[in-house]
Amino acid sequence: MTERYEGSFFGRRKGKPLSPRRTDLMENVLPDFALDLATAPPDDLKELFPVPVGAVCLEVGFGSGGHLLHRALENPKIGFIGIEPFVGSMAKVISSVIDQGIRNIRLYDDDAVKVLDWLPENSLDLAYQLYPDPWPKKKHWKRRFINEQNLDRYARVLKTGSEFRFASDIDTYVDWTLRHIRSHPDFEWTAEVADDWKQPWANWPGTRYEAKAFRENRVPRYLTFLRR
């Protein structure tokens, strides 16, 4: 039976009030970088970016934005779409984008499901979901983003042969993800030995959530799945 959840897969959207500068950036600069889901997407997602890019990657729930910014600066010829509903995190990233002159990023500050449904089929070269909210209480597991419906969404927009990368320090969510994705006909877990999921990907910058996991003696896992 297909799992369904009607509602958001994220928690609160606002925390501390923004500084005047970040408020201005959110109101007047973010729209220049934001996806416009009211219009049809281009057939080729590379057209979303004002600089030439050869591939397009997606990060769902970029949190403080460290990984997204690192990858965008490291790979100026790749376009990155970052999704994050938490206002403080989005304000921090748009501030860094302006300060560092990053042009190969596009952003969206609402539910990732809307973007996945908007994107054209077979349009992404890579997708990341790093340390998503684990919703640790069993009664909330239905709010976990990894489910049959959303895996169908990822499968639709990822190109054949591309990768979906997932990281978490919560054992129950790692097990949950493995069970769901390994049973999905469009994905294949690439791990052959233990280090394949114990070690992060190349040029890994770490994340704020990962640092917290290490401080609290939790062990992160890094899962890579191939879109068949």
In short:
This protein is an alpha/beta fold. It contains 9 helices and 7 strands. It has a 7-stranded mixed β-sheet, with helices on both faces.
Give structural notes.
The protein is an alpha/beta fold and 228 residues long. The chain has one domain: Rossmann fold, CATH 3.40.50.150. It contains 9 helices and 7 strands. Strands 3-2-1-4-5-7-6 form a 7-stranded mixed beta sheet, with helices on both faces. Helix 6 links the parallel strand 4 and strand 5. The radius of gyration is 17 Å and the shape is globular. Belongs to the class I-like SAM-binding methyltransferase superfamily. TrmB family. Keywords: Methyltransferase, S-adenosyl-L-methionine, Transferase, tRNA processing. Catalyzes the formation of N(7)-methylguanine at position 46 (m7G46) in tRNA. Its EC number is 2.1.1.33. It holds the Pfam family Methyltransf_4.
